[in-house]
Automatic annotation (TrEMBL):
<dbReference type="InterPro" id="IPR036322">
    <property type="entry name" value="WD40_repeat_dom_sf"/>
</dbReference>
<dbReference type="InterPro" id="IPR015943">
    <property type="entry name" value="WD40/YVTN_repeat-like_dom_sf"/>
</dbReference>
<feature type="repeat" description="WD">
    <location>
        <begin position="256"/>
        <end position="281"/>
    </location>
</feature>
<keyword id="KW-0677">Repeat</keyword>
<protein>
    <recommendedName>
        <fullName>F-box domain-containing protein</fullName>
    </recommendedName>
</protein>
<dbReference type="InterPro" id="IPR001680">
    <property type="entry name" value="WD40_rpt"/>
</dbReference>
<dbReference type="InterPro" id="IPR020472">
    <property type="entry name" value="WD40_PAC1"/>
</dbReference>
<dbReference type="Pfam" id="PF00400">
    <property type="entry name" value="WD40"/>
</dbReference>
<dbReference type="InterPro" id="IPR001810">
    <property type="entry name" value="F-box_dom"/>
</dbReference>
<feature type="repeat" description="WD">
    <location>
        <begin position="362"/>
        <end position="401"/>
    </location>
</feature>
<feature type="domain" description="F-box">
    <location>
        <begin position="144"/>
        <end position="190"/>
    </location>
</feature>
<keyword id="KW-0853">WD repeat</keyword>
<feature type="repeat" description="WD">
    <location>
        <begin position="322"/>
        <end position="361"/>
    </location>
</feature>
<dbReference type="Pfam" id="PF12937">
    <property type="entry name" value="F-box-like"/>
</dbReference>
<dbReference type="InterPro" id="IPR036047">
    <property type="entry name" value="F-box-like_dom_sf"/>
</dbReference>
<feature type="repeat" description="WD">
    <location>
        <begin position="282"/>
        <end position="321"/>
    </location>
</feature>
<dbReference type="InterPro" id="IPR019775">
    <property type="entry name" value="WD40_repeat_CS"/>
</dbReference>
């Protein structure tokens, strides 16, 4: 039996002038001491035998004089230390040590510097368990969520002083902070500071924002990602698509991950925009390819051999050959399943690319047709006769002839009944198609 387990009783025997005990009494005391320590581990109060003499006339201690064997409530009673006042073993808030009240009154009377000095001295005298208890009591005082306690308007006003980067970090703190940090008006102000004036329409039309998804925040994050890509990510080296040798590239189309190039070597080549490799070569024209259009896996090409060809980009097979023009097919425009082609024979033709049938011919230009646009309802064409014409392809009627250019019309664009024409002479005229103004 370790010596420390006998200390309470060794202390008791010292009070009785070190009188010797017999073996039975010693073993009995050891058993009682062991039970006492087990109960102490379970959180019960410590007790020490009273000062009254528990010995009888023979001068020896007896078991029936230990009060725990007679009174089960003794473990919850008070203990008496020799020469000291009666005191509760475990002090509580309702029953503190009597000296504590005096000490607290003295502490309250001190100045701030004196209090700090007293606290420092107290901490130095504390054991690690007591210091740990201090930390558990003090730390929660500095962990108040003041943002969640404030009204929403005041909380947003506080968060508005944060930089966007810090605002994103604050959103990761808890749900209430995230709800506030996702406020749409808050991110609108951040966007204005960053020079973002409106939300991209494509992003707005994809889906309606949820309760915790700010469209202004999405716009800011998109702009920031683009800016960081330009600043930090290295510029990829360009891919060189070599395959037409020394021939001229006359037309180019791009759709998805495919690039289609036409050349005066009578071929078209389909390239992978990802790898830069040629996937297949479309062979079939007997003259140089001067115009092309692509939609999905469908490719239409026009050539100096006066024909149009419809190709399957996946297989490289020519699906249809469209005959009708009497000169080079110089331009075309695909809309849905119909394509309108313009030729140096001064005519335009409308074709069905699914069946390969010829549908309409538009006659009226006096020189080669150089550019054409088709929106499914109207056809607008520009030619070397300095004129722009607006057609109804179903009736093959010229609705308007737009005059005023003094040189060849090389290109034009139509958008929402508006048409912009660009001339070789760099003059630009703007017309309203519906009113021919």
């Amino acid at each position: 039996m370790p010596l420390f387990k006998l200390q309470p009783y060794l202390f008791y025997t010292s009070l009785k002038d070190n009188k010797k005990l017999n073996n039975d009494e010693i073993f009995t005391i050891i058993d009682i001491t062991y039970d006492f320590l087990e109960k102490k581990k379970a959180g019960r109060q410590q007790w020490i035998p009273q000062q009254e003499d528990p010995t009888r006339g023979d001068g020896h201690a007896h078991i029936d004089h230990f009060p725990e064997h007679h009174d089960p409530s003794f473990r919850h009673s008070i203990c008496r230390y020799p020469g000291s006042r009666t005191r509760a073993v475990i002090p509580t808030k309702d029953n503190p040590p009597p000296e504590m009240s005096e000490w607290l009154m003295q502490f309250s009377a001190w100045s701030n510097a004196e209090r700090i000095m007293a606290i420092n001295e107290l901490i130095e005298r504390c054991e690690p368990t007591q210091v740990r208890h201090m930390m558990q009591v003090i730390e929660p005082q500095f962990q108040r969520d003041f943002i969640s306690l404030l009204p929403k308007e005041l909380a947003l006003s506080v968060l508005s002083f944060l930089e966007p980067r810090d605002l994103l970090r604050a959103a990761q703190t808890c749900r209430s902070w995230r709800f506030l940090a996702e406020d749409n008006l808050l991110w609108k102000e951040k966007c204005k500071q960053a020079g973002i004036e409106e939300i991209p329409r494509k992003r707005m039309s994809q889906r309606s924002p949820g309760p915790h998804l700010s469209p202004w925040k999405s716009a800011y994050m998109r702009q920031h990602a683009i800016e960081m890509n330009w600043r930090t990510k290295p510029i990829r080296p360009p891919k060189m698509l070599k395959g037409h040798d020394d021939h001229v590239i006359t037309c180019l189309q791009f759709c998805g991950n495919r690039i289609v190039s036409g050349s005066d070597d009578n071929t078209l080549k389909v390239w992978s925009a990802t790898t830069g490799k040629c996937q297949r070569t479309l062979v079939g024209h007997t003259g140089g390819v001067w115009s092309s259009q692509m939609s999905g896996s469908t490719i239409i090409s026009g050539s100096t051999d006066r024909t149009l060809k419809v190709w399957d980009a996946d297989t490289g097979v020519c699906l249809h050959t469209l005959y009708g023009h009497t000169s080079t097919v110089r331009c075309m425009h695909l809309h849905g399943k119909k394509v309108v082609s313009g030729s140096r024979d001064a005519t335009l033709r409308v074709w069905d690319i699914e069946s390969g049938n010829f549908l309409h011919v538009l006659v009226g230009h006096l020189a080669a047709v150089r550019c054409v646009q088709y929106d499914g309802r109207l056809v607008v064409s520009g030619a070397y006769d300095y004129m722009v014409k607006v057609w109804n392809p179903e009736t093959e009627e010229c609705l308007h002839t737009l005059q005023g250019h003094t040189n060849r019309v090389y290109s034009l664009q139509v958008s929402n009944e508006k048409m912009l024409q660009t001339l070789l002479s760099t003059r630009v005229d703007y017309y309203a198609v519906s009113g021919c103004k």
